[in-house]
Amino acid sequence: MTKWTTRTLLSISLGIVGHANAGLIGLDLIDNTDNGSQKIIGALLNADSGINVVAGSEVFFGQRGAASAPGDSQSGIFSGVNISNGTTSVKLGQGAILTTGTANVPDSNTSAFFGQSVFSGPDADLEAILIDAGAPNSNTDDVNFISFDFTLAAGLNAVAFDFIFGSDEFPDQSVTDVFGFFIDGINYAFFPDNSLVSFVQGANETNFISNIDRDFNIEYDGFSKVLNVVGKVNSNLSTHTLKIAIADTSDTVYDSAVMLSNLTGLFTTGGGGVGDPPSLVSAPTNMAFFALALFGIGFRQRLKTKILSR
């Protein structure tokens, strides 16, 4: 696992000081002057991640906003996430957001059906996992993904990151959006109850924190806690492929999003999957603690964000 880094510490600090009303902190939308894949990968990877991206293999699929109107973009990067109602907080460090519509996500829940139609797709990988799961509809649209080939540092056999899934499909839409995390063609993104990372009415509501009372500082009607996904590479391959994808199913309305952070290589004896982030650490509550951390308190464990008790 990665160490504490100045970048991560600074990202978390932004969520504590001066940005109390921002769900997505320092949001920078991908516009048509950007290299989308490199910008997103750069926001996700630490220098000591152990993941070596194969140059030229990077692919970004999705709508970029015009430089003069970046709000049309499906994707963006951020310096942190701090979704909070003053009592419960769900936090990530620096990372990226992929959506089924617009990444220009408001800091309050004011729309009954927040969404933007992009009409991009379909995606065969996402459709395959929907079919395997017996989903009511497997047609995908408004697709947004990044992918790249990579090698791992010696001794590592898996890739992991932290994520939050949010959706305006929650709590009353029967048509579901879906998120997939594919390593060497295998999807490892499932909720802890083994359902796809997708809202399924009448089946997996317990995976979501409700925002229907509109007291959290983000548009989505429901969102997950912070989860950690681990994908094990195919040991028969020397070069591997990663794909992170999200899409609407059946229709092109009611946006969903996945917020991603802390992409890293690691060694695991398990087979991969989704669970709570390991080595949970409470976010620092004052800048004095932060100053100590920034100037060299040698914590060796991986910094992970913590969901406060609801």
Write a compact overview of the structure shown.
With 310 residues, this protein is mostly beta strands. The chain has one domain (6-294).
Can you put this structure into words, describing what you see?
It contains 4 helices and 18 strands. It has helices at residues 6-14, 36-44, 124-132, 287-294, and strands spanning 24-25, 28-29, 51-53, 59-61, 75-78, 80-84, 89-92, 95-99, 140-152, 158-167, 178-183, 186-187, 209-210, 222-223, 227-232, 240-249, 256-266, 273-275. 49% of the residues are buried. With 310 residues, it is mainly β. The chain has one domain (6-294). Strands 2, 5, 8, 10, 13, 14, 15, 17 and 18 form a 9-stranded antiparallel β-sheet that branches. Strands 3, 4, 9, 11, 12 and 16 form a 6-stranded antiparallel β-sheet that branches. A hairpin with a 2-residue loop joins strand 11 and strand 12. The model is unreliable at 1-20 and 279-310 (pLDDT under 50). Helix 1 (6-14) packs antiparallel against helix 4.
- Average pLDDT score: 82
Give the number of helices.
4
Percentage of residues assigned to helices: 10-25%
What's the story with the biggest beta sheet?
9 strands, antiparallel
The tally of beta strands, per DSSP, is 18
Q: Could you state the order of secondary-structure elements as H and E?
A: HEEHEEEEEEHEEEEEEEEEEH
Query: Could you tell me the radius of gyration in angstroms?
Result: 18 Å
Question: First CA to last CA: what distance?
Answer: 28 Å
Q: Which structural class matches the secondary elements?
A: mainly beta
Specify the overall morphology.
Answer: globular
Q: Enumerate the spans where pLDDT stays under 50 for 5 or more consecutive residues.
A: 1-20, 279-310
Number of structurally distinct domains: 1
Strand content: 25-35%
